[in-house]
Design goal:
Blueprint (H helix, E strand, L loop, with lengths): L1 H34 L3 E6 L2 E2 L3 E3 L7 E2 L1 H12 L3 E6 L5 H6 L5 E2 L7 H4 L2 E8 L3 E6 L14 E5 L3 H14 L1 E5 L2 H10 L4 E5 H10 L3 E6 L6 E6 L4 H14 L2 H9 L5
Parallel strand pairs: 1-5, 1-6, 9-10, 9-11
Antiparallel strand pairs: 2-3, 3-4, 7-13, 8-11, 8-12
């Protein structure tokens, strides 16, 4: 009888050891899968609310419309997402030198940029606003004549400033980030700045001493940028098209804007 009990106890011990080994093996496999997870690096300029920005009241993580779309697409494709913050003017270079796999930063797919990088389809189209002090007297593009106007370095608004400077007769200066432009206006070092309309509206709401005038023409919409001939371009575009068609992109846009654009 003792022998039978001993054999039963031995059998239970062996089963327990095997189960423990199996569990450890599964845990090890899961850890290995996590370590081997594919990571894509997205470069952005986190000063462009509501597209990409840091809400310091909630944390240090970059959030926004572009981030939500990027997370949705990378998740659908089976990637983990790593977001890198840098000045807007360095984003194209980051793609070219391998620092980033793609860029989402409210970037317009201009002909000049298409010479250096590839783009997805457009996912959002916007306009521009001339931001100035409330007592500036600036009510239209013509009022910029003889003024000093700012724009963000490397942005579509910088291209618009160059274009209007020639036709209207003002000088323009570039700054790396939008908050710098606002501070320069408030300090009197710039008479005005040309800023993307939804971004400008955020600053107009927060800063009572500035005003805005919309420029009634829209340039090319925002798109995702990739290194030339990247295999990601086609895969991302397929998912982006599906998200546009099924209304997923529209839901994200409505989440970040008070009114539909």
């Amino acid at each position: 009888m003792k022998k039978i009990i001993s054999m039963l106890l031995m059998g239970m011990l062996i089963i327990g050891i095997l189960a423990a080994c199996g569990g450890a093996g599964e845990e090890s496999a899961n850890e290995s899968d996590n370590k081997d997870a594919k990571v894509l690096k997205m470069a952005t300029s986190g000063d462009y609310a509501p597209f990409e920005y840091i809400d310091t009241a909630k944390g240090e993580e970059i959030i926004g419309l572009d981030i939500d779309i990027a997370k949705a697409i990378t998740e659908k494709l089976g990637y983990e997402l790593e977001v890198q913050d840098m000045d807007f003017g360095g984003l194209i270079s980051a793609l070219q030198n391998g620092q980033a796999d793609f860029v989402m930063a409210a970037m317009s797919a201009t002909d000049e940029r298409k010479e250096s990088v590839d783009f997805s389809d457009t996912y959002y189209t916007s306009k521009h606003i001339i931001v100035s002090k409330k007592d500036s007297g600036i009510k239209s593009v013509d009022d910029l004549k003889g003024k000093k106007v700012g724009a963000q370095l490397g942005s579509i608004q910088e291209e618009k400033a160059k274009e209007l400077a020639e036709s209207t007769g003002f000088t323009y200066e570039s700054r790396n980030r939008i908050p710098e432009l606002i501070q320069e206006i408030l300090a009197g070092r710039l008479d005005a700045a040309i800023i993307e309309d939804t971004v400008a509206k955020g600053y107009l709401k927060e800063t009572k001493d500035i005003q805005g005038v919309t420029i009634e023409d829209a340039d090319g919409g925002y798109a995702i940028a990739f290194p030339k001939d990247s295999e990601l371009t086609e895969a991302f575009n397929k998912e982006l098209k599906a998200m546009i068609e099924n209304g997923e992109v529209d839901k994200i846009v409505k989440k970040w804007f008070d009114t539909e654009k």
